[in-house]
Amino acid sequence: MSTVDPDQGNDGTARLDDGRSDQPPNGVHWSTPGGGLNPGEDYASGAARELAEETGWDDIVLLGEIHRWTHTMEYDDAIVRQVERFFLARTDQPKREITGVEAMHARDGIATWRWWTLAQLDSTEEAIWPAELADLVRSARTAPP
Q1: CA geometry: angle at 117 spanning 116 and 118, to 5°?
Q2: Domain spanning 2-142: which superfamily?
Q3: Residue 61: DSSP 8-state
Q4: Nearest CA to 87 among 1, 6, 18, 19?
């Protein structure tokens, strides 16, 4: 999983979340780009690949892992234990567009995507996965390199 923070400046930074409109049991929620690992792939490589697949951006460098989350959920009519790792990345193009991946989004049930400010993530009533995403980005941005 990856988060993209295009602004290295203030706390009002816009970031990208993928909007997924999955039907029950997971419901409508917003999450970062991400997905499963290919055989032999490490988490960072998988996150970079998933980011490129879901956004079309193959020039983004991951800056480091910022969060780990393990949970049980229903996926594809089965109960699975999912291990997720989140990485911070930056783009130098504020509000960068996503193009050329519409067919993939339709296949994967991604209804829409948008840029969010950290303040919007803090105040929304919509489901954000993980719920503490804005705080994770803030902490990662203020941590020493």
Answers
A1: 115
A2: Nucleoside Triphosphate Pyrophosphohydrolase (3.90.79.10)
A3: P
A4: 1
Tell me which amino acid residue 62 is: L
d(CA 40, CA 88): 22
Residue 81 is encoded by which pair of tokens?
């234990």
Q: Which of 64, 86, 90, 85 shows the shortest CA–CA distance to 143?
A: 64
| Per-residue pLDDT tens digits for 64-113 | 899 998 988 887 788 989 889 999 888 888 788 888 998 988 888 788 88
Establish how many alpha carbons lie within 13 A of residue 102's alpha carbon, considering only the half-sphere containing its beta carbon: 3
DSSP-derived secondary structure letter, 41: -
Distance of CA 19 to CAs 10, 38, 89, 127, 144, Å? Answer: 24, 23, 18, 10, 31
The structure's pTM equals 0.83
3-state SS string over 68-130?
A: EEEEEEEECCEEEEEEEEEEEECCCCCCCCCCCCHHHHHHHCEEEEEEEEHHHHHHCCCCEEC
Distance CA 30, CA 52 (A): 18
